Fold this protein.
Amino acid sequence: MNGKQYWRSLGQRRESAEFRQWLEREFPEQASEWTGSRRTLLRLMAASFGLAGLTACRRPAERILPAGRGVEGYVPGRPLYYATIMTLSGLATGLLVETHEGRPTKIEGNPEHPSSRGAATAFAQAAILSLYDPDRSRSVLRQGRRSSWEELAGFLRSHFEAAGRGEGLWLVSSAIGSPSLARLKALLLEKHPRAHWIEYEPLGREQELEGSRLAFGRALQPQFRFDQAEVILSLDADFLGLDCLAPAWITAFARRRRVSSPSDGMNRLYVVETAYSLTGAMADHRRRARPSEIPALAQELARELGLAASLPVVQPGAPRSWAEAVARDLKRHRGRCLVLAGPRQPAAVHALAHWINHALGNVGRTVYYTEPAVRTQAERLHDLAAEAASGGLRTLVILGGNPAYNAPAELDFAALMRKASVSIHLGPEADETAALASWHVPEAHFLESWGDGRALDGTASIQQPLIEPLFGGKTAAELVALIAGYPRQRAYELAHEYWTAQWPKGDAERIWRRSLHDGVIPETAFPEIRPAPDVPRLRSLSAAPPPAGAELEVTFLPSASTYDGRFANNGWLQEAPEPVTKLTWDNAALISPATARRLGLQAGDLATLERAGRRIVMPVWIQPGHADGAVSLTLGYGRLRCGRVGRGVGHNAYPLRLSGAAPEAAALRLSKLGRKYPLAVTQEHHSMEGRPLVREATLEQFRRQPDVAARQGPKTEPFSLFREHAYTQGHQWGMAVDLNACIGCNACLLACQAENNIPIVGKQQVRRGREMHWIRLDRYYAGGEDDPQVVWQPVACQQCEMAPCETVCPVAATNHSPEGLNDMTYNRCIGTRYCANNCPYKVRRFNFLDYHKGLEEVQKMAYNPDVTVRMRGVMEKCTYCVQRIEEKKIQAKAEGRPLRDGEILTACQQTCPAEAIVFGDLNDPESRVSRLKRDPRNYSLLGELNTRPRTSYLLKLRNPNPEMESLESS
Amino acid sequence: MPLPFTRSADRNLRIFFSAFLLIITGSITLFSFYSRPQATEIGYSPVQPVPYSHKLHAGNLGMDCRYCHTGVEQSAQAGVPAAEICMNCHARVKSQSPLLAKVRESYQSGRPVPWVRIHRLPDYVHFNHQAHVLAGVSCVTCHGRVDQMAEVRQVAPLSMAWCLDCHRDPAPFLRPRELVTRLDWQPERDPRELGGELMAARGIRPPLNCSGCHR
Amino acid sequence: MATVSSSTESALVLGRPSLAEVTRTVAGIVERRTPRAWWAAFALTGSLTLVLLAMLGYLVTTGIGVWGNNSPVGWAFDITNFVFWIGIGHAGTLISAILYLFRQRWRTSINRFAEAMTLFAVACAAIFPMFHVGRPWRAYWLFPAPNAWLDLWPNFRSPLIWDVFAVSTYGTVSLLFWYVGLIPDLATLRDRAQSRARQVIYGVLSLGWRGSARHWNHYEMAYLLLAGLSTPLVLSVHSIVSFDFAVSLLPGWHTTIFPPYFVAGAIFSGFAMVVTLMVVARQAFGLQHLVTMKHLENMNKVMLATGLIVGYAYGVEFFIAWYSGNPYERFAFVNRALGPYSWAYWIMVGANVLAPQCFWFRRLRTSVPAMFAISILVNIGMWFERFVIIVSSLHRDFLPSAWGMFRPTWVDLLTLAGSFGLFLTLFLLFVRFLPLISMSEVKGMMAAREGA
């Protein structure tokens, strides 16, 4: 397989109907087609063979089903790669998708795409599983009864004849980044001028745009250049975590934290936040603050910077000195610093941030402004409510999204929907909204439908499908086209027509092809805008003062697993431990240890939370480093109408979420319920017990003594009783993980799960300590429990040269390869678990039960055919993606050339947005990994055991502001 | 009450015990002998839905293996041809033959011909045709003189032990790349010597570690 | 001198019974109608055995997941039970072989009993290595059988393979030893048999024993050889079992003291089990004059001695952990005594170190209820010793992030109970159909005394 491959012939892909039919039709049978899918089919057979004990029995006749007609340029058994995009809240990230025999099996980031730069987020990685989710809705529903697209078409035609100029027609769509859809929207509103269209996202960023409106008089999208910033202040912006709009942000940020020699510099990050976020974990100085204190602090800072002398003095207790010190540091880095505010902050705070950046001359350097890629208008839902109340609402069309579940609580969207005489819902599953709608239309997954989208910076891309809709889904564009009575109806036509119209007749097709190939459309990024701040307006501005003496403040966070609830039915995401709390299959009300003591609560206690007359029940979780007197609620759980995986998982926090500028600030009452709730965490112990596992130093210390990493370890001269091998021949694979870059985002964990067919085990098994992830993202707290620092350490099999697991396996199922890999042979393993017991890193995973049992054919299509699906009773673990190694070696041989450094990428490395993982050949002194191994920061985990791990880690550094040490110690 | 044992009892007991032992050991030996892959796998030759004769096509007509098995040099799988490939010729040649009905039907409908798999490896074995063919391992090494088989049958045990024999000492089984599909080709000189040179020339080191085939 | 010996020997058989009386007493147990109590007991243990089979069936069809094992605790009840039962098995060989070679006459009336127990314990033990693997249907790969498909051998560096050899050898030799010892008594039963069936069965089993001088001559020689053969096994088996742990690098396992410590522990638990069962049996079958207080007292003394050795080992482990300066080792032992499984640790110390101290006092050493209670305690304590070594070492090793807890499931508990069921069932069958005291040897000893 030669790197990425693209369209051999567009015509064939696009036009040839039989190709599509072939795909469609073949899917059921495909499981028995070609080695790849045969594996998945035969897996259970293998078990029965095993039981029989004799693989030598006469075998059942097995069929090979070649396609009736060949597909041009396609070789069975060779994966193809196509470029497409995934859109989340209206913003696109570029992807490269691997397909085997017409089934998408793995997602990578598209290196050409500005917002992904080759990295893919956890959500993108997990999208494969959602594609093959058998619980997606499979047909158009009318009043919950099976119907058809044609019937809907007929109904709509007649209905909208009646609708006339669109009186009482309201459309609620999710954020629209797609230019072609935007055009259809315009067309529809033209046809029905009285109609209303609201773009709504539960995690919308209205405050950000409102802030720029306050600052500059117009809505602008700030674009950040993190690689230019030497000092960054984040006001509750989790820009490395769930507020990250482009993985490329993380890449840019992490590049400024590469330190390989004492002379190298490194950026400094200040974070003010309530809950512990990924960004907070990376901070050199993190200040935990209640939601209401953050605007105060922003104001304080503005005053320290001499901007807003007129601003009202913030209430006492505001951290003057802290703001002072930060202000000085920012001033020292004029034009090389950056201040940004998070989406949970009121517009005023955003405005201040804009102002400060402008004042410090950062605009045009570390931050610049463009047109916003998306504009959501949650506030307009109130107009809709008003119209419904006045009985004016006739037709409600919901294009994607699940407002009945996640709309602001005070609207009571469910009741509102019932008021509409006709309601049409387009969505991937029969969710809470679908249940209330008179029509439900299955929405096509982005991997099975044509479309387009814009990245944050405006760069547009075509969303090309890799497979026909498995369950006959439609896209929003198709539904709008139908409603607007637009002549063209098919998603492909809609996208193709729009774009080819943008380009000169002659080479339109060529540009189209090129855009499909590259995954980006040339010259579509927004131009930079140089706005002038409206200083008088800003002077008069004041961040909303907090309600006096609120006992407990509440803030609402996106979920690392379900985002806003849309991924609730994705088992990979549900089982991926929340990075900081390590919770799986649940959300919880996060409170600080002090608050817990005050309220007499313990982790796992159920509590009722009451706010503005609404109450929910939720377990509490004690989060070291959380702000006192505040509660953080993770959204996106407690879905009731959802697939089998996500139904009733966790507790729904939306009922407490009200709209308005800064809803978080409103007070909350929390009372213990006196019952416990079982939570499943993947890490129960949080201190390093003083062991030199994650080695950490400040930049200063590192400069004083570059070998500080080694000094932190024990002094030992290990020797071995066994004969030692010399690994000098051929390739010698090794890996280095830069703990200074790793942000603990779980992308590697999910990439690994997708690449290596790692099963989902479920909450009960996780509670028993049987999660199967090959990569364990260890999270340790350092410092007191009230305000600790967090460090990450991704631990997978270390591929020890002197592997303790190998000597003890009675059947020699785990052995060393001449290339230094610790091979694990599933088909030889009998499952004594001795190797796992003897593994000091505890990275071996055992199939305690048949975790692949009872999958439907469509789910088996997600499997990677290059990796054996492990049966019950065998041990498994990280292999350095040996299937990728072998593949590239064969390819290099075929092309008669040596392997290039960086040609082989492990799944975790390829997706890591922070570029923290480097894999390569240790026998090549010039390979990146060899150079990192020579880096003074390099050290081995538990090296003193003389296991000689092939994976090593690079010292974690922090770059604290010297003048702050004092006031933090105080 | 008469004694239960006669004079001969002792002898009978000995005979009984030795016979017992003999039967046990005997049956184990026989079983393990006949459960060898050589006994169970070789000669497997199921009836195919279409009576396609490799003898005719590859043998008499001398068609190259790669004409139908197109993937063999680029992919892990050699690939079984689509009906389309058959029709390239059979649209004209024997276009009405009843024996080809299934093929024509498949070509029209696009529905596949259900060939029966003969050379089967377990799920956990990742064999790669491309790697072997490009290394100069001939088809004949594993599949035998297919060009002489009216009905293809399995000629090699395809057991791990058998694979390893070649991986440990590939020299005698190597030939110039361009000759891999020449099933009747015989080297003029000592094949081991030739293979040795090829190995040196192309840096052929077949993997002997588990992950070479099991991933 | 003579007087001393005669006095000790007289303590071994009370009331100067005639040889015929001895035979009548012992053989009588087998020949009498089956007592109701036996049936009751058999019903109980039999059903427990069925429970064991059910649990194993469930395990094989569903997976190791039915147990509480997890990551990091890959071994728990399974291997704990294995080591426990193997340990129980030690008393038999020790008594019959080593004491025989040392001419300890007091062994005569208890060795048969102890050997039988050994066999049954080994049988129970063998279950666990077999079924603790994830794919039991592949367990035969543990044996060095050449394989035409794979051309693969086991990994001879793995202690688990050593176990396979150690345990199977031990089982075989013990069986031979026990059977050879049985032959003369089987002949006796044959001769006394009333029914043809018994005549035939015991006849076949006694291999045509006629008690001629030549027979006795060969018999004694064989017995002596087997004794010599099995003596080293007593030490080897548990040493090798201990290698499963000692050879690993896990803090709490990686300890050179393990072999002697395990052997002592094994003998300790073995004797405890003998006492437990013997006390009951001699009461039930009225053998007080053959299995005398002298026997029991001697066994209690052995328990006291081995108990002290075990206690010493516990102490030394801590000393070495501290003395080695290895932080992981230190933590492991502090965690044993104070961590989440400290309760198990203190049960172990209480039952294995403190309880046997009672045997310093003659009154307790010779009081049947006391020794019964203590022997039970020691059995419990020794099971917990293995539990502590395995689970408390595994659950917290090098990386705190990977620490976890083990909680047994109902299957774990019922499997353990079931293994006792199997053990006792086999035992009941033994006492019912075979002479539980070696008549020939007892009589031989008495005869020798007459001669003196």
About this structure: The first helix of chain A runs from residue 10 to 14.
